[in-house]
Amino acid sequence: MMKFFLLSLLLAPALAAPADADPTATYDYIVVGSGPGGGPLSAELARAGYSTLLIEAGTDQWDNPTYADIQNFNEAANDETTRWDFWVKHSDDAARDLKFKHTTWDTGDGTFYVGLDPPEGAKLLGIQYPRAAVLGGCAMHNAGVASLPEDDDWNRIVNLTGDASWEAGKMREYLKKIERNEYADADDPSHGHDGWLAISNSDPSWAKNDSSPAVKIMKRLAELIGQDPSRVADFANTDILGDFPNRDTMSSFFNLATHADKTGKRFSPNNYIRATVADPAKYPLTVKLNTLATKVLFNTTGPKPRAIGVEAMSGPSLYRADPKHIPGTTAPKTQYFARREVILSGGVFNTPQLLKLSGIGPATELSKFGIPVLVDLPGVGERLTDNYEGSLLGLGKVPIASGLITILFRTPNAPTPKRNIFAWCGAFSFEGFWPGFPTYYGPNQYSCAMVHIKPRSQDGSVRLLSADPQDKPEINFRFFEHGGDEDLAELVSAANMLRESWQAAGEPVLPFEELHPCPSSAEKKSNGTTCSDGKQAEYFKTQAYSHHATSSCQIGAEGDKMAVLDSKFRVRGAEGLRVVDASAFPNVPGFFPSVPTMMISVKAAGDVLAAAAAAKGADAGDGE
Ligand SMILES: Cc1cc2nc3c(=O)[nH]c(=O)nc-3n(C[C@H](O)[C@H](O)[C@H](O)COP(=O)(O)OP(=O)(O)OC[C@H]3O[C@@H](n4cnc5c(N)ncnc54)[C@H](O)[C@@H]3O)c2cc1C
Ligand SMILES: *[C@@H]1O[C@H](CO)[C@@H](O)[C@H](O)[C@H]1NC(C)=O
Ligand SMILES: *[C@@H]1O[C@H](CO)[C@@H](O)[C@H](O)[C@H]1NC(C)=O
Ligand SMILES: *[C@@H]1O[C@H](CO)[C@@H](O)[C@H](O)[C@H]1NC(C)=O
Ligand SMILES: *[C@@H]1O[C@H](CO)[C@@H](O)[C@H](O)[C@H]1NC(C)=O
């Protein structure tokens, strides 16, 4: 606690731009949320000369080693300094959710119970879904994995909206614009070198050691995915962000890239925001930390409500997802005004909540809480989706010391020729999120963590529990709602391939004792066989987790009632209001959303500035 307050005090002056002195100031733009969606956008607008207010509920932790050193990502996601705890449901089936091994309960004495057998009187919280309230958003506590969507994820937006600016080839330009790549050649056309986001990868030379168990596993895996096992040392250095022909159908190994520099320093929108504020050019960016936006303000005299500002409360830990929140704590509301536009970038849970609190959302839901309906927009908070994740976890007889295998592959039962699984294998455990995650199983732990992409179901929701902006919404992912059996079969197929590769690890590692999805010891005791595909599917159905949520305010086709945004991020039915964050994607962009969200942030800045230029042109025209 002490450290937290001291840091905020120390950092406050660095971020206090001149406009901060006048609380009644009107800005050109107000951006709510400084994560991958809002952070880069706010900096771009200020750099273009427009006065911009960036409202962020969290603090600045740029020089706190928990956040600054990317290797501390698990510690960062657990840290109370920035943590927002959302307790989510995975389905409408309460009994199924209770089988999730890391279901979390409030014991009432200030501690959590995590597990299947809660103490008497404990109150069910649900499944933890971490978020970070901090300058830079979740890009400050995530693992920093940098990956790009499939080309079709972008091209699909062109199809939906007719807006050719989303074409995959054009979207790469945004990566090049933000990126300061540290591993590619200067003339590599896939990459940028002058941006604010350092992206690096790691030394792949471990993959040259043919006697290493990790390399033996990799060679077997190469055979299973149709690659040449003699070339694994090259594959371990393949650029995961590279622009290859047929990249989305290429089952292979890669060098994992992260948004960090070579020395392990994390890079995120935080760097860009700080650099913009500190720039001698005195760009007009005002950052208000510890400020919770509670409502968008509208002028309702015209045919469509026009966003003219934001109401917010200031003070630390006002939101009830913040574990430091002290019950009963509240603060007066201040109004901030925007001459041009308001942009919401609170992330996939908070943006739909804020829209609904402001009168934009499904009319029946808003009326239930006495919120006057400005725009009946049924898609707000709906069609929430996420990649399913699960892992194969075991214990070797000795530690497998070196080598993180990164693989993107297609299982034989995938519905298209495209890859459907991202996995990384190494001496770690990752089984999802709960207070205190992950479990350490000792030095012999080994796992392959899998991300299944393109879930067939997009039925999650973010819905209000009250009209109080300090309250959290109700979040239900409705995993496997339809097409679940097919999705699960793909996960099982991937697990079977990965397990088979493990058997190549050789002495002295073998045999592995598998902990899940097919616990070796339990199986042997029961009937002496390995577990069935059906049993594995049941395991993944109850134990799947996720952390790449998107699409709760999605871009969609004209005429689609559930579409919340048009292709320029404008909220349908309103004026002067956009949503720019992970909630805007029509589906999860590939494997990991952080870099893609930064890319659309910069794209959106172009759209906002183009609108400003057009308005200026119109004004000039009027004057003539
Ligand atoms: C533990 C974890 C690990 C992850 N690892 C990876 C990874 O390795 N690679 C990857 O690509 N993705 C990863 N992700 C996902 C990725 O970080 C997110 O998809 C991404 O940050 C989403 O960006 P965003 O701008 O939509 O939202 P966020 O990053 O959530 O940012 C939203 C910001 O808005 C602020 N805010 C919200 N509401 C308000 C309000 N009312 N008023 C003021 N401020 C508000 C929040 O404090 C926050 O700072 C991970 C996520 C988690 C949780
Ligand atoms: C876009 O539409 C065209 C024509 O209908 C179709 O062939 C193509 O597969 C679509 N692409 C995506 C990514 O949806
Ligand atoms: C190669 O791997 C073996 C087995 O793990 C190990 O003993 C040896 O030290 C490694 N060699 C190098 C050069 O790292
Ligand atoms: C609201 O919009 C109308 C035009 O529709 C304008 O005349 C009026 O000044 C606006 N009011 C505020 C408070 O912005
Ligand atoms: C062994 O047990 C598992 C479940 O524990 C079951 O799925 C499998 O069918 C059983 N095999 C046989 C041969 O009974």
From TrEMBL:
Binding site for FAD: V134, N142, A143, G144, V145
Signal peptide extent: 1-16
Domain of life, source organism: Eukaryota
Keyword rRNA-binding belongs to the record: no
InterPro entries: FAD/NAD-bd_sf, GMC_OxRdtase, GMC_OxRdtase_N, GMC_OxRtase_C
Annotated ranges, domain Glucose-methanol-choline oxidoreductase C-terminal: 455-600
Entries under Pfam families matching the protein: GMC_oxred_C, GMC_oxred_N
Keyword Signal recorded: yes
Glucose-methanol-choline oxidoreductase N-terminal domain mapped to chain residues: 129-387
GO molecular function: flavin adenine dinucleotide binding; oxidoreductase activity; oxidoreductase activity, acting on CH-OH group of donors
Keyword list, A-Z: FAD, Flavoprotein, Signal
Cofactor(s) listed in the protein's UniProt record: FAD
Gene3D superfamilies to which the protein is assigned, alphabetical: FAD/NAD(P)-binding domain, Glucose Oxidase, domain 3
Similarity remark: Belongs to the GMC oxidoreductase family.
Protein name: GMC oxidoreductase
Record organism: Neurospora crassa (strain ATCC 24698 / 74-OR23-1A / CBS 708.71 / DSM 1257 / FGSC 987)
